[in-house]
Design brief:
5-stranded antiparallel beta sheet, 3-stranded antiparallel beta sheet
Amino acid sequence: MLQEFSQQVEDTARATVNQIHTALPGEIVSFNPGAGTAVVKPSGKYITSDGVELAYPTITDAPIVFPFCQSAGIGMAFPVKPKDDCLIIISEVELDAWRSGAESESSLRFDLTSAIVIPGLLNGGGALVEKACSKDAVVVQAGATELMVYDAGVEITGDLKVSGTITADETVMIKKLDLEKHVHKSAVPGSKSDKPENG
């Protein structure tokens, strides 16, 4: 009798836990940049209280996490594309109050409808990660263009386009040419122009 009761308690607890979602890998189905929300498909399957395996449903209107400070207007964004891997976090509370300030109409906890998505989940490493680790650097790459920030300075591979002023407190070198000491040939044969002047 006691053994049957213990088994019933265990089965009930397992069934309850199986309905609690915390975090799982998934795939981006689509992304709405204007709204900052994605449609995502969780990976794997879940088991019902009857022991039936089912595929996770597609989750819609899930907010995406980017490194961003909204109050200061400072942050970083990158493309989010279909088929990208992601980490789906399930909020302990419903997102209604956070989204709009409205109170939730129900009291669902750890429910798939309260999903938050972190893009960029890696299924394996890669050259970019290896370089960042070997150089102790932050590496930003877009196609053939690369920006690397590490203790030796900042390295840019690719074309640099600037809208605004470039200010340097130290010497600016271009292929071992010191711009501060650089002079141009004059139109008058045999003479050179003066060094560059400020103002």
